[in-house]
Amino acid sequence: MTTQAKTDAPVSGPYAEHVVVLGEGPRPDPAVLGGKAARLGEMLADGLPVPPALCLSTGLYTAFLEESGLADELHALDGRSARERVLATEIPSPVAEAILAGYERLGRCRVAVRSSAPREDSAEQSFAGQHDTVLDVADDAALLDAVRTCWASLWSERATAYRAVDGGPGAIAVVVQEMVHSDVSGVAFTVDPVSARPHRIVVEACQGLGEGLVSGRVSSDFFVVDDRTLEVVEERVRHKVTKCAPLGSGKIGMTRVEAAARNVPCLNAEQLAELCEHALFLRRRYGSEQDIEWGMRDGTLWFFQTRPITTGPEAGNAAAHTGPVTPYVTPQKEKIEQDTLWSRMDIGEIFVGLMTPLGESFARYYQQHVHLDCTSALGARVTGDPDLPMGYVQGHVYLNISYSAYVMAQCLPTRDQWRFTSRFVSEEVDLTGYENPFGAFPGGIADALSIAFWLRTTANEATDMKARAERMSSSRAYEFDRDRAVDLTRMSRRELDAELRRRLAYFHDMHVGYMPYYIHAFGFYAVLAELCKQWLGNEGDNLQNRVKTDMSNLRTVESAKEIWRVAQAAKDRPRVLRIIDETPLESVAATLRADEEGALFWKEWMDPFLRDHGTRGPQEMEITHARWIDDPSYVFQMIRRYAADGYSSEDILRRSGSHQDTTSHTALERLSLPKRKAVETAIAMYRTYSELREIARMSMITSIWLVRNVVYEVGRRLLEAGVLHSTSEVAYLDFEDIRGYLAGTASEAEAFDRSGIERARRLHEYHKRLPEPPLTFVGTCDPTAAVRPVPDGERLEGLGSSPGRVVGRARVIEELVWQADEFQAGEILITRYTDATWTPLFAIAGGVVTDIGSMLSHSSIVSREFNVPSVVNTKHATQVIRTGDLIVVDGDAGTVEVVENP
């Protein structure tokens, strides 16, 4: 690991006694070395595999203050000012010489520099994440800067708040430890930190450095080992696309996992047994359950830290419950809880997939403040209790179909509840004999009033629907431009609070305005389907599918066409295309803007594209996901792909929106004039509402992006104040806490509980371990239930959602931004689910296969639009199929077969 031979020469100089080589000499004193260093010293003395390390004791920090004259000055400053003062102060020569002499003793290798507070990693407080760490430090100047950073973190607000019960800042030690560029890293818990099940050692492992796992930026494998037998009793191997790794001298960042390592376990059984043997030793050694950080390089295991687990499993928490759970947010009568139909199928495509704690809390805000007004906009006079329409299971959002059908029964088109219920039921649920536990909506005067309200609302909708779409489109452009002109960083907290309120009001109005288009489009399609079924038979199926796929003017498909046009423009400018092709993704935008020709291209092509489409992003209600305008990496990936494949803007136009369907036209001609007019009217209304829906949808998703910008400005301030360790931790905040912070006067550290952030992170990681919950279910759901495996992994059955049969090589896409440029034209796209941001890949895909979905999900609609065979709702295609497999996708039969596995 080292770059230069170590030396046994003692550290000399006036402060030599404050530089301690860990693992040597007497038992380390946590009051002098800090908790982390003391533990590392004990582990080294016990012969455990710990990289060589030294500690700059609390005495050296005190010497730094005295030599620089800061001792009295800092106590007169607030925490933030004190931190800035330390960072701005050069380390006096006598102290610097002691540090560098210790560095010489380590062999001047690359090192990790970590803070070690006296009360850190104690049985009472862990202080995990409260102080700073600097990785991959490579020279004298960088080392001194890193040490100063760790000293300054003593004064961060997060550390100040965490130790508030103990009084003043005290002192801090620093660990300087040989850096291990781990091939595999992770954490091991000697007890499951979330579930209360006994005899479970939980190991999470990722490719690369452990910082990617801790920050939640990479996928990890999950193992459970029986602490009595050291046998692996549970294993979940995930597709791993990215890892945290050295990118250059002293620089750590994200990079791709090698293709051969993406689907294989990070650890084998022997390596797990070795790791767990050491973990059990540490549990016995310290007499408490341990949270252990480890890494492996060239097959050799190393330990970087161990600390007691100071918070145990929370038995009352639904996320940690091991049996069936109800999605209801408040307790309900037993019959209601047991007989409610829940669905997360096609609920606007904005709640698809696992939500982060922030995303889920934002969904709860929508539920409490927006959803009922959306229901009223559909013509429902009585909207009821805001706690009832939505529910949550292991971070997934569900719509209460039973309650929604009950409420929507006030409207004439959905008086028959089955018309609403059947729209959201997947094949997993048999509703034969099902009765809605909420019953039928009351008759009499209440019913008459509801019908009158629906008629009035519908009449207003008919006269205003086109004008409202135009108003929404104009407002979207205005709000987008206004956001670009506003500097949120210069606003006071009070001003930022007012700004968030303004944006939440816009968020409300855009969702309420959008909902009628969405529901009426689906309603008129249902009318069309019924008319086709009664009057046209099998020919009717062809007609309604043709109408459904006639989306060539809709914006979800238009975004792919526009990227194609931008790619064509880049191809016409070789210098621009070279910048896009050869510059690292994260630097493409800045490089283009700094180049004369690139800047002109950006102004002429990128700015208009991002203004029209830039607020798109995956899982739109999940506000932690960057939009295209925030991070255009995906757009550049697709420009690279389209340009490399040699497509022009006309190719996509030919592939979509130019289908000929003479069979459907002939079938209509055979109908009588009244019937033909009825079908044509249903088609016209469906198309009208679909087009208006797409116009309004851009305004709706832009409103989410506007809220996101304020949230991340709060995150920036929390990071600056030291409350957050990185911007990735914004995902573990609660939206109501953000609103409360902006509306109140509490400091950042007072408004946000660090232990709550850590608890949210652990629960989110627990959710990620569990199998995908069902699309629909009645009553309760067991989030720990395992998915039934496919025999031999050779054949999958799902829902054929776009016709045709294709043979091709599979490409599993787990992280769209990182993998878009890997996707080759004609490959079969394999993924869990898709949304509007995936559309550009469909234009070059040979077929599409997803784990979840329905006939009306994004995957199905866009596959039909591009004439791509598709099978959705396979449950576990991403677990069975591997990149490179030769597979057969039959969109008519709804099957996927692996015919060759290289």
Automatic annotation (TrEMBL):
InterPro entries: ATP_grasp_subdomain_1, PEP-util_enz_mobile_dom, PEP_Utilizing_Enz, Phosphohistidine_dom_sf, PPDK_AMP/ATP-bd. Residues 823-894 form the PEP-utilising enzyme mobile domain. It comes from the Bacteria. Signal peptide: none annotated. Pfam families: PEP-utilizers, PPDK_N. Gene3D superfamilies: ATP-grasp fold, A domain, ATP-grasp fold, B domain, Phosphohistidine domain. Residues 32-319 form the Pyruvate phosphate dikinase AMP/ATP-binding domain. PANTHER family: PHOSPHOENOLPYRUVATE SYNTHASE-RELATED, PPDK_N DOMAIN-CONTAINING PROTEIN. This is PEP-utilizing enzyme. It comes from Streptomyces tubbatahanensis.
